[in-house]
What does this fold into?
Amino acid sequence: MSKKAFSILALLVVTSLLLAACGAPAASGGADAPAAEGDVVVAAGDPIRIASALVISGPNTDLGLDSQHGVEIAIEFKGEIKGHAIELQAEDDGCSAEGGQAAGQKIVSDPSIVAVIGTSCSGSGVPMAQVVSDAGYVMVSPSNTAPSLTDPAQAWKPGYLRTAHNDKVQGAAMAEYAYSVLGLSTAAAIHDGDPYTEGLANAFRESFEALGGSVVAFTAVNVGDTDMRPVLTSIAASEGGAPAFLFFPVFTAECAHLATQALEVAGLENTVRGAADGCFSAASAEAIGDAAPGMYFSGPDLSFSGDVYNQFAAAYQSNFGTAPISVFHAHAFDATNMVFACIEEVSVEGADGSLTINRQAMRDCLYATSGFQGITGSLTCNEYGDCADPKIAVYEIVDGEYVSVWP
Amino acid sequence: MKDRLKNLDLITAFLWLLRAAIILVVAWGTFKTLLSNPYTSRNWLDFIIFGIAQGSMYALIAIGYTLVYGVLKMINFAHGEFFMSGIFTATSALAIPLAASGFMDQHPLLSLLAIGLLSMLISVGIALLTERIAYRPLRHAPRLMPLITAIGASFFWQYYFRGLFGSQVRPFPTVAALQGSIPFLNTTVLKTHVLVVVVTVLALVALNFFITKTRAGMAIRSVSENKDVAALMGINVDRAISMTFATGATMAGLAGLLYALVYGQVHFFMGFIPGIKAFTAAVLGGIGNIPGAAVGGLLLGLFESVGPSLFLQGLGIPAFNQLKDVIAFTMLVLVLIFRPQGIMGERLAEKKA
It folds into this structure.
């Protein structure tokens, strides 16, 4: 091999691997997804099958596993629907566009699946909403929060709903906390290019500026980056001065790097740090460790109450041997129960004990959900699938536990 | 002049245009940044220090790529996993229990030495195992086969260690003695960064001694010159190759410890990106050349750290820090266009031409 050919080959290899590492969103393969069959027929004695597509590997495992536990408890509590057991097929969304695409394709290739609970990450939700909707299936996400997913001008698809809050609400809550409660008037925001992080950072910026604060820097890092000191140094040297509040709604690994390294960058020693529900898990608290004081986390308000929640919490503890490890378990429980309510409503029993469920009827029923009483509140879906009763709280980490400080 | 223009083919002309364009963009961005000068001299010094610390780690990992390329003419894509395996094991099996028992606070130096040693031992073990099982049977196969095998080995080790220690991010315990920073010129340097640079320099000096002065080092060099002749001279080629892998993995294990100290977290996938970057550094410096790997690593770290602010900020690009990999790889392209053999890659040019 000549040296020139070698250099070209080396370059190609490097760039292709880098591209793969950057996680370029895969092109949608919706066109060759199987066409809508219309009806799912569950034979007598067969279980009703639903799928989950949550992140159950990698650094964000806690986020998805927590939701999957919520789904499993909902199935356990429900037991059966019209004499049919319920079976869960658990897939992994990988917290990436490719992962969402792959999990979606796998699910829609299985005609026995009635509905999907997922995804965990908005970045996986975008391609999966496309695949699932094109195939006529329906998905309810317990933890996608990116505003674009329920925006018809952006990523919304007709088979998509969610029980998680829209980040317009979360961004506004964090902005209000920083500006009004902490009294900080300058801020900076960092995202990682993922739809969830970018959407939330944008929502925060808009609300913070609307309140009268000024955003001195708005920038981004890459998923997988470890050295955050250069970007933090440029933020500290912003034209408007070092920000008093630094908001980085990114996921576990990058969030912990930013949280610890911000303390070591000249000019940011006194900056209050903020992150969001992507960095709200036992693993995140452990990774942030000693850097936790002076850092706040926005997330769904977990001060649930009521009999159902108490039973749920007890079941979680006894089944999985731990208190909930992240924040969307209740949303997942509610999402699963919404699906069950609709299965009960639209399924038709045949004379031979079979059950017929029409996919379009499933979708219509879920979109028509109104005043559904779940753990997270009273859920009513709007025409673009936003079903949450959004309540946001702000937390800090005390001795490794997230403790609510606001409202 | 006219004749030369006539002979200029389209692709050559395009390449020249590309070179000129890249240099123009870089120069224009630098000029604009310096004109608006958003940073103090202290900021610039900070960027350089961050770059040197990051680059030192790339350099240590790049040594492994370059050594193996030198003797086997193959790119060992599993090298990033050698780096990961050592420190991931040392953190999970040793550092976390040590910190929990309080031993680490009482004897920080002893603990770090033990963690570093375990990290290097595991890295070397994994490297030797990979070489013996995955590469040696393919030594006389066409060159693409070991390359693909290396990628497979890389996946194997990633998921093997994920199975062993889980997919979670594990925090590396903080070492109280290494917290804080010390004053340097008009800024301050983190103690961990000082440690990284000192350890890297010592490791490179030791490596140089090993390669040039010891019998094993000479065996490695002679095998990299010519395997057959080396064998005729009574050198055990298999042993020399194993020694090469072990040397590279020692450096990777050491880099793992430094990485854990600076970034404070480890996980099963942590070897992938540093591995790719270190491979880039090795190509940048001239693959097969040991000082080249060190220089390439250092330069790559500096480009990543200083580049976005220096070249891109002035152009008014939003979120310019996200483009640090673009800068690093543009620099690689530039260097390869002007010096296809890499910065210090003379030897390769003679041998491979």
Notes: The CA atoms of residues 131 and 242 of chain B lie 7 Å apart. The first helix of chain B runs from residue 2 to 7. Strands of chain B lie at 170-171, 181-184, 187-190, 265-266. DSSP finds 15 helices and four strands in chain B.
